[in-house]
């Protein structure tokens, strides 16, 4: 039972600060639309004069640490209340977290020293980790402390990302970017393994597939290895293709056990399955490309990162924030706005940016424009359809 007894106190909090999902889902989505628009301009016209860091670095860093990390924070700050029964972060303290997230987004366009910007970003990550961990410990739900090392690694990667601008660490920016890609894929794999089969079975009234611990380990341990190998390119070049191939097979086997073919009538469920499928498909093609079983292998391999980043990370985020917003604003989950067009757009964006550029590189500029437009359409639809829900009190009058 949640320890929320004073509804009059709850009513004094502006709705957008009543629980973590509200500001981070809304502002994270808005920021993703802005950031993709800026990146397309920079890709076509070159470095914006006001930007104080390299445009490519800014694009990757901001999509990971700006957009995606905001959604992760909002999701976990909300979920921990359900896991523990302890009131979630809200009101002024939630406002502090939102401000700490926003500041680096702005400061990268100013002359503020990078050490300060990176430290503010690290402080945001550390405080989110604290907000989650102390509730888990208080409720003795130690299983969910699994997310603490994720944030520790993210803090280290954040500092490393900034340091690469100055050429300080013995590895380039791309090492950090690849590591963070696997960081997000591992997080999605762990969370997806918990919720996707559960949501599917519950919606379509069949028994959820039993969890096979060996299969979960076989699907997830290779992702940990890929994270670590990102910082050792010579070793990675030799062993990563085999690891990715193995991970692709295990992820595919795991996904098939969730019965994706049963979900075609429900966009909020088939979108979870379709976007998750970008993980094994991206891993498979990337592995085959690095084994030179596909022509122009290195170029194809690089572009498969976008299948995973846009399709799996961006797509699963879009699906989950739609679902969570419905549930946590007191609405019937499957009676909300129809988002099938947005879900289809984000998957199409992944394939255009990944496969389109990989196999038709002569049309790269057009493909990037199309993929960006599809991303902007997808998240703009979310903002238009769900933004008001995030800014208003729950429909059922309950706190949150």
Shape: globular
Number of domains: 2
Residues in helices, as a percent range: over 70%
> How can the largest sheet be summarized?
none
| N- and C-termini, Cα separation | 14 Å
The stretches of 5 or more residues where confidence is low (pLDDT under 50) are 1-5
Keywords: Membrane, Transmembrane, Transmembrane helix
InterPro entries: NnrS
Protein name: Short-chain dehydrogenase
Pfam family, one: NnrS
Question: Which secondary structure elements does this structure contain, and how are they paired or packed?
Answer:
Elements: H1 7-11, H2 21-45, H3 55-84, H4 91-107, H5 114-138, H6 147-165, H7 173-204, H8 213-229, H9 233-256, H10 267-276, H11 278-290, H12 297-328, H13 340-359, H14 364-391
Helix pairs in contact: 2-3, 2-14, 3-5, 3-7, 4-5, 5-6, 6-7, 7-8, 7-10, 7-12, 8-9, 9-11, 10-12, 10-13, 11-12, 12-13, 12-14, 13-14
